[in-house]
Amino acid sequence: MNALGTHVVLELKECSPQLLDDLPFIQKTLLDAAEATGAHVVGQTFHKFNPYGVTGVVAIAESHLCIHTWPEYAYAAVDIFTCGDGFDPHKAANIVIEKLQSREPSVIELKRGLLAQVQRVGAR
Amino acid sequence: MNALGTHVVLELKECSPQLLDDLPFIQKTLLDAAEATGAHVVGQTFHKFNPYGVTGVVAIAESHLCIHTWPEYAYAAVDIFTCGDGFDPHKAANIVIEKLQSREPSVIELKRGLLAQVQRVGAR
Prior knowledge:
By secondary structure, chain A is an alpha+beta fold. Chain A has 3 helices and 6 strands, in the order E-H-H-E-E-E-E-H-E.
């Protein structure tokens, strides 16, 4: 491990517009992705916007998953952030891609808190 | 506007370790940053981890702010995601940087949902 966190940035294009506007479905998708990959959910908040779109965030002990959907563009922005090795963010990403039926997903991985750049501070 | 969302990625190094481990302070910082920039908070979840660290997410009508702190590395990963023009994510970012006393902040802006890549789907 060369970083404190791994952040997977998903640009999900050509999703199902109907699914992107379905709050219970979006919520279940994120929770399923978290749980299927062994993450431990510690909090969540989901909202439906008028006229379109859902925002959702799931806080997990291993960090977070969040989603913002634009059904009118068949697009969702998803971020999956994890620390440690207990949770595979790419496995969670694949679940979300499949559930939202994205025909054109892009996946970028960002390393957060590079250990070459941060130093452990004195004993606390 | 050439994208649906603007995502500001903050790597906050050399922060105050004490502040990074202080859940009420972290919570107030994110809420202050959201409110000072005119965002509308619609949900939030914050957690203190053992032995160190805080995770927090604030869902706003304009998208979200989230933070994960590693006090033992004096480091925080912060993401500020917004859509529309009603909320300036860089102004919020500057508030967080100042409050956490980061002496080495990095700021990267990602455009999410590039309008050159997504298309409005038929009337719904």
